[in-house]
Write a structure and sequence with these properties.
Distance between the termini of chain B: 69 Å
Number of helices of chain A: 6
Oligomer: heterodimer
Distance between the termini of chain A: 33 Å
Order of helices and strands of chain B: EHHEEEEEEEEEEEHEEHEEHHEHEHEH
CATH topology of the largest domain in chain B: Rossmann fold
Shape of chain B: elongated
Largest interface: A-B, 57 and 50 residues
Radius of gyration of chain A: 18 Å
CATH architecture of the largest domain in chain B: 3-Layer(aba) Sandwich
Strand order of the largest sheet of chain B: 16-15-14-17-18-19
Structural class of chain A: mainly alpha
Mean pLDDT of chain B: 87
Order of helices and strands of chain A: HHHHHH
Helix content of chain B: 25-40%
Structural class of chain B: alpha+beta
Number of strands of chain B: 19
Chain lengths: 167, 421
């Protein structure tokens, strides 16, 4: 996005690469679970990518939301837990990396050097995603192994409680 | 003092996470809950992530440290992190207002504790003394949920001296001081150019006798030559806020061009033996009394470089025109002529020039043209300015209208030819 001052505020290219990589994994995982979910997810990734390249925050938000819809469609299409988990992490990362990239573009302009900043942020966010997914998946398999209904119920109660606490 | 603010970029993630959880309950499809947990996990991460307290040191080096006007200067900023790991550090250097950066003075990085990072940018030096503002550093935590802003100060000053090269000579008017110089006067005496003959008076030098006439008529008469004298000149630079005009923000403003012209004129006049002084029509005290010599040259160089009244950005102080004129007249030597550098963007400049001329200080106006013809408004401004210049010319003042593209030498040459014709 070129403002009235003539300063180029598009995000750094490294950020677009990171978003594309995360998006490819996310949409791929959703596609493995459900074709419809994967398609919508891929569409969301594309929109996010355009948003990052152009420095438009609305496009990044719209793309991530579309990816979220893809996730829900995949879930309704009875996608396996692993596929949903990767899709969910991917969707959050799409928003996180996209928003971060647009912010850098706005604040530091396209000409500023920010490769390391983007790389460190992406690495930490991905690591957190993997950690959350692993813990979640561990609890999920442990809980749904014996008594599915009770285990999932506890998980559900815990998740809602945490969500409310963190609101 | 660092103040931590919430960026709220993760706001609503927990609420969004409830959507798949709710859908999972309705559809009785447990994997949905798993997707929701991811959102809850990220919310917890953002919530628990604290922002590190930045402890930064900045070093700034300029290459070259004292550039010529118009020269490119490479600025290297080195950031040392004396605190803990900073996952998200954004640095914006406090570039002085008058200097234009070619690329960008901003930089983003992650910096480990004890580590350092450096970046460079280039800017174009302009005349003057420029001091850097503190560096603004924005530190965020890894999730970006909180940020802290600090200003880190480090003293850096760019000194850019104008060149005092005499590339053009300024044609002066006939008001002179009683010292020999280069301005031809209407006074007969010893000189180069023939002026008149007069009756011989006792004591006239024999060398100046008109021998031809003596041979022809037998009468004694004396040849007179035009005396060439030195002038006392005060270079007056219009540096009121109004005079800081330029055709577009990238171009140099009229005050900068005025000062550039004044530096050239200063050296040229000093070299030809004239006494030169400098004053500013604007806020602040700026007055260098007319004088000669190398000390005076050094003082002028310092004044052109560092005086706040002549800086590339306007001075904030108030300007009182009437008081200024009274004071200026009191200081101005009676035999001084004035070279007035002004874009002539308002009637006050015209009035001042006319008034000084009326007081007997012959005025030459050198006017850098800041107008353009891009819009109807700017065209009007251009017409108004040319009317003002016409008014000045019709009151008998010499005016050099100095366009953006033409070098000053060319314009002076052209004007000199017109004036002598």
């Amino acid at each position: 996005m070129v403002g009235v001052t003539g300063v180029d505020h598009t995000p750094p290219v490294e950020a677009a690469v990171a978003v594309a990589a995360v998006g490819a994994v996310s949409a791929g995982a959703l596609a493995l679970g459900s074709v419809l979910g994967g398609t919508v997810g891929a569409l969301g990734v594309a929109v996010t990518l355009v948003g990052v390249l152009r420095g438009r925050l609305s496009a990044v938000g719209g793309g991530a939301t579309l990816s979220g819809f893809g996730l829900l469609l995949a879930g309704l299409g009875n996608a396996p837990p692993g596929s949903l988990l990767v899709g969910a992490v991917g969707t959050v990362l799409l928003w996180d990396l996209g928003d971060h990239a647009v912010g850098i573009g706005q604040q530091l302009t396209a000409e500023a050097e920010a490769g390391r900043l983007v790389a460190v942020h992406a690495a930490v966010s991905v690591a957190v995603g993997i950690a959350v997914a692993s813990v979640g998946y561990g609890i999920f398999t442990a809980a749904s192994g014996g008594q599915p209904a009770v285990g999932v119920l506890f998980l559900l109660a815990g998740a809602i409680g945490l969500a409310v606490a963190l609101r | 003092m660092t103040r931590v603010i919430e960026t709220e970029r993760w706001a609503g993630i927990a609420a969004v996470a409830l959507v798949p959880i709710g859908l999972g309950v309705f559809t009785e499809h447990p994997p949905f809950v798993l997707a929701g947990i991811v959102g809850v996990g990220y919310a917890a991460y953002a919530r628990g992530d604290t922002v590190p307290t930045p402890a930064l040191r900045i070093e700034r080096t300029l290459d070259p440290p004292t550039p010529e006007p118009g020269e490119d200067v490479t600025v290297t900023v080195e950031i040392h992190n004396d605190g803990g790991f900073l996952p998200d550090l954004r640095v914006i250097d406090g570039v002085p207002a008058a200097l234009a950066v070619d690329d960008t003075a901003r930089f983003g990085t992650a910096l480990r504790g004890g580590g350092s990072a450096r970046y460079q940018y280039t800017l174009t030096a302009v005349r003057g003394e420029h001091e850097w503002e503190p560096v603004t550093a924005i530190v965020r935590n890894a999730s970006g949920s909180r940020e802290a802003r600090v200003e880190v100060d480090t003293q850096t000053t760019l000194q850019c001296h104008p060149e005092l090269d005499a590339t053009s000579t300024l044609p002066l008017r006939g008001l002179t001081a009683p010292f020999s110089g280069r301005v031809p006067t209407d006074v007969g005496g010893s000189g180069l150019e023939f002026y008149a003959t007069r009756e011989y008076r006792h004591g006239d030098p024999v060398r100046r006798l008109d021998w031809a006439r003596l041979a022809r008529t037998g009468e004694l008469s004396t040849l007179e030559f035009r005396e060439e004298r030195a002038a006392t000149v005060v270079l007056l630079i219009d540096s009121r806020r109004k005079a800081y005009r330029s055709p577009d923000p990238e171009e140099r403003n009229a005050v900068e061009r005025s000062v550039e012209a004044a530096t050239q004129a200063f050296s040229a006049l000093l070299d030809s033996g004239d006494r030169v002084g400098v004053a500013a029509l604007g806020p602040g005290e700026c007055w260098l009394p007319p004088n000669t010599g190398s000390d005076h040259r050094a003082a002028a160089r310092e004044l052109f470089t560092a005086h706040p009244s002549l800086a590339a950005t306007p001075l904030e102080d108030r300007f009182l025109p009437t008081t200024w004129l009274v004071k200026f007249r009191r200081r101005l030597p009676a035999d001084a002529q004035v070279v007035f550098f002004s874009p002539v963007v308002d009637d006050f400049a015209v009035q001042t020039a006319r008034r000084l001329d009326a007081y007997g200080h012959l005025v030459t106006v050198v006017s850098p043209d800041p107008t353009t013809d891009e819009t109807a408004g700017t065209q009007l401004a251009r017409v108004e300015r040319s009317n003002r210049l016409s008014a000045l010319r019709s009151s008998g003042l010499r005016v050099v209208d100095w366009g953006e593209e033409t070098p000053l030498e060319t314009e002076l040459e052209r004007s000199a030819r017109r004036w002598s014709a």
